Amino acid sequence: xxxxxxxxxxxxxxxxxxxxxxxxxxxxxxxxxxxxxxxxxxxxxxxxxxxxxxxxxxxxxxxxxxxxxxxxxxxxxxxxxxxxxxxxxxxxxxxxxxxxxxxxxxxxxxxxxxxxxxxxxxxxxxxxxxxxxxxxxxxxxxxxxxxxxxxxxxxxxxxxxxxxxxxxxxxxxxxxxxxxxxxxxxxxxxxxxxxxxxxxxxxxxxxxxxxxxxxxxxxxxxxxxxxxxxxxxxxxxxxxxxxxxxxxxxxxxxxxxxxxxxxxxxxxxxxxxxxxxxxxxxxxxxxxxxxxxxxxxxxxxxxxxxxxxx
Length: 310
Known about the structure:
Largest sheet: 13 strands, antiparallel
Low-confidence stretches: none
Number of domains: 1
Number of helices: 0
Oligomer: single chain
Mean pLDDT: 95
Number of strands: 24
Shape: globular
Protein name: Carotenoid 1,2-hydratase
CATH class: Mainly Beta
């Protein structure tokens, strides 16, 4: 249902009021004795004039706990995302390439990024086809879950030569108005499996599941126990009043999996945004426990979007 080659380009505009088009990546990189988490996203909401075109950049130093983020709202005339290929240009942002190699440049008041990313594994199609229901509304999504990453991260006047890996995600479709909030996690297992978790909470439902891509290209699509059940250690944002959990237990019975997941660096990783909620969480995190009955540990991101106020 999706094509990682042509679908990196912008999608034809949908008619739904909340229709969106998004591409983003999260990175775990190292430099000069520091572990950094990086997130870059651009999202188009063409039917919402006030914030139709925007991009964000967030950096967390997991070693020191420092974090900063930036969101740019761009005029339509200053934004370009070509259909059929990855060619994005906006003030402060350049993102070009294909499903094999990409180049990303970002410039913000607090820092800049100039990286090259090379895909070293197969694409991951969510639900194995790239098409699934999100609160009973069709959604399209795929990932390039293993991208070798290198380049320069500048924070203030200090430049870091960084190396590590990135997980790129591509998503589009209608954002269902019945969707209250969601949690998303991307876990790379020591055996090469890539696990993408969706926990979508609607007005009257909670749908929690995972897509597992194995190194040979085969899939498992499995139920996950709802994450809210054991979410704990809340952090309250002083800017928006949102309350975000910072610890979870991920249980996947079909895969004999139970993982503790916790936010690293600092709980204050809310990206300030021109959204009704005022922000959302893109937090560096770590996990440890058992996967397929074997002990594992690693790094992930925890994305929390929507209304998390108690």
